[in-house]
Every structure is written in structure tokens, then in C-alpha cells.
Amino acid sequence: LLRDIDGKMNIPKNPARGLKLVNSWGKKKIDFVPIDPAGQSVKIYVCGPTVYDSAHLGHARAYLTFDIILRILTDYFGYDIFYVMNITDVDDKIILRARQNYLFDLYQKGAKDLNKVCKDVQDSIKTVKDKHNKKIKTLEEDLKQTTKSKDRDELKEMVENEKVKLGNVEKAEKEATEYIEKQGKSGAKDTDVIVGLLNIVKSEVSYLLDKKEGHTVTDHSIFRDHAARYEQEFLDDLKSLGIRMPSVLTRVSEYIEEIVEFVQTLIKKGMAYESNGSVYFNVAQFSTCHQYCKLRPECAMNTKLGEEGEGALGSSGEKKSQSDFALWKKSKKGEPQWDSPWGYGRPGWHIECSAMSGELLGNNFDIHGGGSDLKFPHHDNEIAQSEAFFDTHQWVNYWMHAGHLHVKGRKMSKSLKNFTTIRAALQSNSPRQLRLMFLLAKWDSEINFDENSLLEILSKEKQIKSFFSDAQATLRNKPLPSKMLQKWNDSDKKLNEAYLTIKADVHKALCDNLNWADAMKRISDLISEGNKYMRKEDFKPLLLKNILSYTTKMLRVFGVIFNDQVGLEGEAGSSSSSEEAVKGILDMFVDFRNAMRTEVKNMKGSNGGSGKNIMDLCDKIRDETLPIMGVRLTDTKDGSKWALEDPKTLMKEVEELKKQKKLQKEKKAAKLRKKIDGYKAEIKLYQESGKTEPREYFKQLHEDREKFTQFDANGMPTHQKNQDGTEEELKKATGKKLSKALKVYKKNFDKCKKKIDKDPSYFTTTLQEVIKKAEEELARLS
Predict the structure, then answer these.
(1) Between 47 and which of 267, 368, 370, 482 could a Cys-Cys bridge form, CB atoms 3.0 to 4.6 Å apart?
(2) CB 389 within 8 Å of CB 265
(3) What angle do CA 487, 491, 496 make, to 5 degrees?
(4) Residue 520: how many CB atoms within 10 A of its CB?
(5) In 188-289, at which residue ranges do the beta strands (DSSP E only) sit?
(6) Closest C-alpha to 377, from 316, 292, 314
(7) What's 709's DSSP letter?
(8) 219-254 pLDDT, tens per residue?
(9) Which residues pair with 631 in a beta bridge?
(10) Considering only CA atoms, which of 29, 43, 37, 40 is closest in space to residue 13?
(11) Is 684 exposed, middle or buried (0-12, 13-18, 19+ CB in 10 A)?
(12) Strands of 405-407's sheet, edge to edge?
């Protein structure tokens, strides 16, 4: 082999199409040229998921990103794509989670003694806290001895992440303590308390159970069933997100034979060695004629990150160097295993992608993709294995890494518990909205997931929807082309120039490292121009249709408009579209509804009675009936406009509208109850303080009126009768107290008198009628 001196990429001398990509190998923007001599076929491999748990939005970021990339390469640049994605179904994370879930379920079924469970919970929390504290201490010691700024940054992030994990355990501990205290007071059954408690500390209890009993889990189907469950869930998530499936799915467990052969070849070439049943890649030997760590050269000696890539279960052999990594791991008790020349074991993490991609894509292919966190050690180790196996210095031509999704400055991650699963996200956001979120940022940049980003997405979606529905409604109401002036004026020419400029800008943006964020901005500008143009009386339908057609095409390229129908949709000139098929019926229906609404508005007393009922029915058709059929109806001052949309999207809006209406009703009902209570309080006040003059208060109403014997001119008591029948003058303190009471009474009396002066029947009739109407309205709301 020739020594790989500079590690630079050799670009093929084949036809190109103006596209430039930022290659993670070299971190430079270079021409994209396929290996195919004709410049047509492109081979791509993307690292798929490790199926140990539900996929979250961080995963959606990666797979939606590559879906958009592949759509642009296929549907815009016209390449023929052969796309391979792997499923990692053999891995330390899967083994641990499968064992933990299995052992936890067994433990929960047998847990009857609350005191014992509480003791186990305490032990579990202590064990996990000790683990995190130990790791924090080790990392902080390493940080003190590290001088390189990049290595220090990596270690600082690892320390902070470990502290977040420790904080999550402490939070669970606090919740568990509070839960036990609360349930102890409630008198709940021990069995019910145990279930609730274990749900709070499942991960901590599972960790200790696995540490003690993980080696006893030997049924291979436990691991396979666990991986199969989450593999199918992941594939269902891809479908829900509108992500196109790859040409080939490769599953690690189905390529064990190829992986073993790959490892054997590396040993024969002197690039790997066996140690105590495990096999390791010899980085030092490889580095004598290759460059190690092409993607992140600064990490070549970063043993901490390398250890992270070896997995939580580690391996059994002794390495010649800390930089060496496992190709084959000897299986310990409680781990799945396959036979090999080195005994029973299982594949290391990095080897799987090299073996499977090599089997299907050969010794050199165009693009390898994944999340940016995979650069080192995973992808750099893949490169090392494959270059050694194929005797090459250029295994993959272009490396593409999708940016991360961050939450409050941290990467979304299961271990940090700052994640939202794809399924949970789709409960409150549509697949289109999630795709738009990623389209508004560059594919290789970080995205921060927060409320502001969601508001921006909703605004963008609303702009697009409104443009299409308004344009279609406006075109629908235009006369036939033969009855319209077709000659362009200055306004038409100006818009056409803007349209052509925007098309050129979009093309330029996509050629520039697939910069769809800038492309989307220009498409948004075109929509704004189109909105202004269609408001002109003399706009040209053909020009507006061109803009609609181009906007539709680009949004379909990005997957925002999802239409991957296979088959013939209709003959040329036929009414094949859904809109054309229903246009006549909907136009007639909307005209009838408009006439009905206009007639009701003109009816005398239309604010109540049958007129209001008809208007309510019209609203019900708009808000409940038509959405089920996929029809959006919008009422405007100039009449109603209809548009066809996805029934699921519309029904989601209907449900949201129902929630809002229910909330409004509840708020209105609460206000009415408050008013009714206020009116009744007024009546009570009148009955207590409004009928008797203040000077008669102490004689007729006060609770001690029987005691008072003498009064002054204002009705204030001056003397009282004692229990023995004698009379005495009131004490000064008592007089002050009674004076305050009279002041309060007089204030209430004057308030009532003021209202009676305005309306003599206010308390006897008016308020009663108001209360009656309010109670009737409250009943209707109920």
C-alpha cells in the first residue's frame, strides 16, 4: 500500500450538475461528482437507529434531513439513488434495556411488601448516584490534566451532561419521597402504592436489578423481541413523518456471517488481533500507511470519546493500545451470542456498517450520512476498518452529517431525559409542521427546539396554506380565458421578472450545499408577491398558475406536499385532480349556503329564533361536516371560499376548535355564575341593609337590640339594660364599636337607596329578571 500522506479526497472526473457539498472529510465545500462514469447513479448509506427505545425528535431531525436531501437529489437534480440504511439490532444499549425491562417486569409482578420495595428503591437510587458521582470525579480529574482546548471542551460537556443525569436521579428521589409521604396519609393499598412508586424510579431500580441479575437473562428471544418491537415502531414513525423508505434495509443480526468474514480478513492483513475471545482493530498498525481520524483528526488520541463508543458493557480482552477498538466482543453471561473462530461472541458497534455497506455498495461509494455526533468514534472507525479491508485510501467520497436538535442548549438525548418522542410530537404537531421546522434551518446546522420555533413553523404553514387556498378560490371565480384580456401590462412583467429571479435564487441556494433554508426564504418571498398580485383586478391567471405550479413543485421536492402515488392518475385533458372532480358540486353548495346566510342576515329579528338556528347550522356544516370530507370553508365579507386539504389535518383543527369553544364556554359560564352570585348578593344586601332606615338599625335589626334602652337623635344607643334589670350608660369602647357597625350599615343602605332611586323595582323585579336570563343562558351553555 502507498502511504496516505495528505488524506485529501480525489474528485471523480465525471459529469457534474453544479451541486457543491460541504464534505465532513476536509470540512470544505467541493463539487459533487458521482462515481458513476455517466454521472447519473448515486450510492448512499445512512446510519440507521439503534432500536433500544422509542425514537425522539432528535432522531427525526436526522432522518427527515436525509429524506429531504435524497428528495432533492432525486426529484430536483435528477439523480438515480440507491439508498441503504441499517438497523442496529445487536448492541450494548439493546442488551441492557431488554434485560432491564425483563427483570423490572418480573420484580414488579412479585413486589408485595412495601417496606422491602422502599428499601430496594433507596439502594437503587444510592447505586445510580454513586455511579454518576464517580464518573463526574474521574472526568473532572481528567479535565485538570488536559491542556488542549478542544479536548477540554469535550470533557466539560461530558461533565455537565453527567451532572444533568445526576440531577435527574435526585429529582426522581425527591418525587419518590413526596409520593410515599402523600400515599401514607391517604390510606391507599400497598400494592397500588408500589406500582406508583416503581413508575417514578423505574430506570434506577432497573439499573440495580440488571447489575445484580443481568447475567441470568439467557433467552435470546428476549433481546430479539425487544429490538423487533422498536424497529417496527421506528419504521411506523418514518411512515407517519412521510419519509421515503430506503432501497434496502440491513439488519445486523442478518449479517453476522459477513461481519465474521470481514474481521477475519482484517486479522489476515495484520490490521486486527484476537485477545481473550475478543478481536480489536490495531490503530497503530493502520496508521503506518493510512490517516486515522479523517473526520475529526483532533480526536485521534481522545480515549474518553473512544471509550464511549465501546459501549456500556465493554469487552473481555486486553487492548494493545487505548486507541484500539472492538471488532468482535466475547459474549459474557446475559448477552446474545453467535459462533465465530474466536468463540461465542457478538459484533462490535463500528464493524456492522463497514460489513453491510461493503456487501451492498462495494469498496467505494458516493455518500455516507448520519448525525453529527457519529463523526468520532463511529464514522472515523468505520473509515479505518474499510480502508484496511479494501486496501484503499478513499472508501467513501462524501461524508454528510446532519446537525443536532437542541433543547435549552443541550442535544436532545434519552440519557439526559430532555427528549420528546416522535409519537408524542405528532400528537400536537403535524408531520408537515415538523418537516417545516427542519426546512427553516440549514441541514448541517444545529436547531434549538422551543416555543418560538414552533410559532415560526405555524406562521410559515399558515402563509403557504392561505396562498394556495386564496389563489385557487380567486382563479375559480375568474371568467374563461377567452373572455379575458391576456396582454401583459407593467405589473405582469414586473412579477414575471421577480418570479424568474426567485427561481434562479432557489436553484443557486440548492446548488450551494443544498441550502434549503435560503431556498425556502425565496419561495416565501414568491408567495408574498403572488398574494399581492392576485388582489389586482386585471391579474393574469396563467402567470399566477405558473407561480402556483412552481411553488407546488418545490414544496413537493422538499416533501412538504406529500404525493408519492404510484400508477396512472388520468388522461391528459381529463379532470383527474380532486379539486376539478368536486368543483361543480362545491361551488353550487357554497353558493346556496351564501344565499341562505345572506337571507338570514336580512331577516327581521335574525339575532334570535329560527334565523340564529339557521346560522348555527351553517357554521356546523363549515366546522364539523365539511372537514371530515377534506374541505376547508372560510367565510369572508365577500362570501365563502373553499379549498381541499388533508382531512386528518382539518379534523385536528376541528378538535382544537372544539377545545377552544369548550374553554370559551367554561370561561363564559364562570363569568355568568359570578354575575349571578353578585346579583344574589345584592338582593341579600338589600334584604339585610336596604329596607330599614339607619336611625332604626339598632332598634329593629341589630343582634343586641333587646338590650338597648335609650338612643340619641341619630338612633345610636346610649344606654343598655343589664342582666339584673338595672340600666347603665354604654361604655366608650362599646360606643365606638357600635358607631363602626352603623357606619357600615349606612354605607350599604345608601348604596341600595341609590339604585332604588334610579329604579324603584330594581331589587324586587329587575334583578330577579336579570338573574333568570343569566341562569337560562347558563343552562344553554351546559
Answers:
(1) 370
(2) yes
(3) 85
(4) 22
(5) 248-251, 272-275, 278-281
(6) 292
(7) E
(8) 999 999 999 999 999 999 999 999 999 999 999 999
(9) 644
(10) 37
(11) exposed
(12) 410-411, 405-407, 447-448
Instruction: Give me the helices (H) in 398-489, please.
Output: 422-428, 431-439, 451-476
Instruction: Extract the C-alpha cell encoding 704.
Output: 343586641
List the one residue out of 336, 471, 401, 458 whose CA is nearest residue 62.
401
Q: Cα separation of 529 and 510, whole Å?
A: 21
Question: What per-residue string of b and e applies to 228-263 under the rule 16 or more CB within 10 Å gives b?
Answer: bebbebbbebbeebbbbebeeebbbbebbebbbebb
Task: For residue 85, give the H/E element and its range.
Answer: strand 80-87
> How many Cα atoms within 13 Å fall on the side-chain side of residue 362?
9
Q: What is the DSSP string of 118-160?
A: HHHHHHHHHHHHHHHHHHHHHHHHHHHH---HHHHHHHHHHHH
pLDDT in tens, 50-88: 999 999 999 999 999 999 999 999 999 999 999 999 999
* Preceding peptide of 479 cis, ω within 30°: no
Residues in a beta bridge with 249: 85
Measured at the alpha carbon of residue 338, what is the angle toward residues 351 and 212, in degrees to the nearest 5? 95
Q: Confirm if 260 and 339 have CB atoms less than 8 A apart.
A: no
Cell, residue 262: 470481514
Q: Which of the 8 DSSP states describes residue 484?
A: S
Neighbouring residues of 419: CB distance < 8 A, sequence distance ≥ 6: 56, 57, 58, 407, 412, 413
What is the three-class DSSP state of 488? Answer: coil
Strands 717-721 and 727-729 turn out to be antiparallel
- Fill in the amino acid letter for 411: K
Q: Alpha-carbon torsion 508, 511, 517, 519, what sign?
A: positive
Per residue in 532-551, pLDDT (tens digit) is 999 998 999 999 999 999 99
Residue with cell 445510580: 128
| Rounded distance between C-alpha atoms, residue 309 and residue 295, angstroms | 15
Q: Give the three cell numbers for residue 760.
A: 324603584
Give the torsion sign (CA, 170, 172, 176, 178). Answer: positive
Terminal-residue alpha carbon distance, the chain: 83
Q: Residue 284's CB: how many other CB atoms inside 10 A?
A: 11
Single-letter code of the amino acid located at 66: F
The 3-state DSSP class for residue 641 equals: strand
Instruction: Give the number of other Cβ atoms within 10 Å of residue 107's Cβ.
Output: 17
* Residue of higher predicted confidence among 308 and 232: 232
Which residue do the cell numbers 341562505 mark?
A: 596
C-alpha cell at 165: 443525569
What size, in residues, is the chain? 782
DSSP H or E run through 115 = helix 114-145
d(CA 89, CA 347): 11
Structural contact between residues 197 and 117, judged by C-beta atoms closer than 8 angstroms: yes
The confidence score (pLDDT) of residue 573 equals 45
Choose between 271 and 643: higher pLDDT. 271
Interacting residues of 137 by C-beta distance below 8 A, sequence separation 6+: none
SS3 of residue 448 by DSSP: strand
Distance separating alpha carbons of residues 520 and 508, to the nearest angstrom: 12
CB 38 within 8 A of CB 414: no
Alpha carbon distance 306, 148 (integer Å): 17
